[in-house]
């Protein structure tokens, strides 16, 4: 259960009085998640989500509020934070930073179909198009510099072959990206897995959990999506889902030639990013709460498949 700080009905009812959202009816803790306490709140007017922030850098929360406000203003399907009667979104509840959101419709897609891939590709292309003009800035905390600094911490826990694999990949990334000028930049989600989307049938109801959001390479965001949304169980790419998602994305934001050139290496780098981050949680920095870490082996498999088979050809944009 992802409720690390329990709340009473009375606490939440008093909290809601700061907002124009109606009168409290019920409170339900939300299962799942690994970092924050999340609750579904029902009033006599609407359904809401209340999040208490348990970990992380709390001084960075205004960046997330500004980003979600910005994307919501541009009519992207994101939960724009609800501001109180004085125009303030970020509050404190039970001595934790707290945000209130509208509850978005839908469920997480376990096995996304082509229509869902098309919808996500189209929306992510739109999001990246407008996010290039977002004025906020938060450096990508999981970029190549992080890989260079952190991969040494897990090497002693790996087999000799995997130690060589990880070190060689970091060296390859350094060499490959040094050959190109800065790639297109903007605000990115940073963790757009299937379980951070909600679908009502084939309609994308919402993109949620922007707490890995930052500014950086748009291609980094796209590669995370492709590795999660279009990989088969053996780590290879599913051509239909891959072409559908990327074709829809490029109809909104065609990739530059430099992006196309580094695409295979970006897929490998984002696979290593998750293999490493999950290894760190297992061996070096376990979660603060009694939760089961994600299995690092999934992205170890994906990385080896990208090395063995490369990337599928990038489709051309279709309109």
UniProtKB/TrEMBL annotation:
Biological or metabolic pathway of the protein: Amino-acid biosynthesis; L-threonine biosynthesis; L-threonine from L-aspartate: step 4/5
GO MF: ATP binding; homoserine kinase activity
Keyword Nucleotide-binding: yes
Keywords assigned: Amino-acid biosynthesis, ATP-binding, Kinase, Nucleotide-binding, Threonine biosynthesis, Transferase
Pfam families listed in its UniProt record: APH
Reactions that this protein is recorded to catalyse: L-homoserine + ATP = O-phospho-L-homoserine + ADP + H(+)
Annotated EC: 2.7.1.39
Highest taxon listed in the record's lineage: Bacteria
Keyword Membrane: no
InterPro entries: Aminoglycoside_PTrfase, Homoserine_kinase_II, Kinase-like_dom_sf, Pseudomonas-type_ThrB
Sequence ranges assigned to domain Aminoglycoside phosphotransferase in this UniProt record: 27-255
Gene3D superfamilies in the record: 3.90.1200.10, Phosphorylase Kinase, domain 1
One GO BP annotation of this record: threonine biosynthetic process
Family statement: Belongs to the pseudomonas-type ThrB family.
HAMAP family: Homoser_kinase_2 (MF_00301)
PANTHER family per record: AMINOGLYCOSIDE PHOSPHOTRANSFERASE DOMAIN-CONTAINING PROTEIN, AMINOGLYCOSIDE PHOSPHOTRANSFERASE DOMAIN-CONTAINING PROTEIN-RELATED
Name of the protein described by the UniProt record: Homoserine kinase
Highest classification ranks of the organism: Bacteria, Pseudomonadati, Pseudomonadota, Gammaproteobacteria, Oceanospirillales
Gene: thrB
């Amino acid at each position: 259960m992802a409720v690390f700080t329990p709340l009473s009905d009375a606490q939440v009812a008093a909290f809601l009085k700061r907002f124009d959202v109606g009168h409290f009816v019920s409170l339900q803790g939300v299962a799942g998640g690994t970092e924050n306490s999340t609750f579904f709140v029902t009033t006599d007017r609407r359904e809401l989500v209340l999040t208490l922030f348990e970990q992380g850098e709390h001084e960075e929360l205004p960046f997330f509020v500004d980003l979600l406000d910005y994307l919501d203003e541009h009519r992207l399907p994101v939960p724009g934070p609800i501001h109180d009667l004085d125009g303030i979104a970020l509050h404190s509840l039970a001595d934790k930073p707290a945000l209130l959101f509208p509850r978005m419709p839908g469920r997480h897609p376990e096995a996304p179909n082509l229509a869902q891939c098309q919808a996500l590709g189209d929306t992510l292309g739109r999001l990246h198009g407008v996010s290039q003009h977002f004025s906020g800035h938060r450096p990508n905390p999981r970029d190549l510099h992080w890989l260079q600094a952190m991969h040494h911490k897990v090497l002693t826990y790996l087999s000799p072959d995997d130690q060589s694999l990880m070190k060689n990949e970091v060296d390859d990334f350094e060499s490959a990206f040094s050959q190109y000028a800065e790639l297109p930049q903007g605000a990115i989600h940073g963790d757009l897995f299937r379980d951070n989307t909600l679908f009502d049938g084939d309609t994308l109801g919402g993109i949620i959990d922007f707490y890995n959001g930052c500014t950086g390479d748009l291609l980094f965001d796209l590669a995370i999506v492709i590795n999660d949304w279009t990989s088969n169980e053996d780590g290879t790419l599913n051509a239909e889902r891959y072409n559908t998602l990327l074709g829809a994305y490029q109809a909104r934001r065609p990739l530059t030639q430099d992006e196309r050139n580094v695409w295979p290496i970006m897929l490998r780098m984002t696979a290593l990013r998750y293999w490493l981050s999950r290894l760190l949680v297992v061996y070096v920095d376990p979660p603060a709460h009694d939760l089961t870490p994600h299995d690092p082996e999934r992205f170890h498999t994906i990385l080896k498949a990208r090395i063995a088979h490369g990337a599928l050809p990038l489709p051309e944009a279709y309109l």
